[in-house]
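Problem: given the chain below (281 residues), write out its structure.
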Amino acid sequence: MNKTITSVLAAIGIAASAPASAIIVGGIDFGVLGGDPTKTHIETATLAQTFINGNGQNASVYGYITTVNGDNTYCADGSGNCGLFYTATFSGSQNFSSSYVEFTSATVSVFYSNVSPINLLNQDSPTNIATIQAFNGGNPWVTLTGHGNLGGIADPLAVVNGGGILTGASLSGTGFGLFDVSGPGDASVISFLNANGVLDAAGGATDIVLTSSFNNTILNIFDQANGFANGCQDGTAVAGAWCFQGTSNIRGDTQIPEPGILGLVGIGLLGLGAAARRRKA
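Solution.
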């Protein structure tokens, strides 16, 4: 990770710990907890997400993985030069209101890079997405696809839902979703994370619990300079503006928490809590 991103991690209080084992999957050291996939814990930071303001819209998201099982120096070779980055699309917004929204499909593509330094804080969001999607020849490390039956007030077909609070020109909120591990991706990573250990609201099995928080307090200065974040802090933003960033701390579990009215108008920080139980052969 570059020094700029490292300073951001320090600012939000993510502590590093030394790698404690050689459980290597897809070039990443999963540490002591890697021996028990039921405890896999991946924290991620979303650098920006687009704004939506109605039904039938899509949200774009991107960011980077900050820690793998508590370690922010998760490169298998110990160099600190690698990194995991992601882009995501949440599609088909529905049941939109001033405080709630659902999405009927979602895809998260995680990319591995061994190029250093990589600074996603010195260019605008469209350029950042193109940069991430070019890593490893454009081949994802793993792909996650949305899984329905969130529970609570969510439509059974919704894969991600969210709620926000608008105070003056400040918007904040939380999000919740379920995801299946799929391809394209590294076969060893798919096998490792495809645990089917999380239960949806109907009792079906899935792999990933996602929760998030977000706000529009800090914007990418290059998005602002290039007109990609117009209106994000004065209440006049249009759909597609890059309005959100956020933080989270997520762990895998064998059952989903009650989502209530959790969800996302912007998913802020994407937290990927990887699944609990390994599939039996």
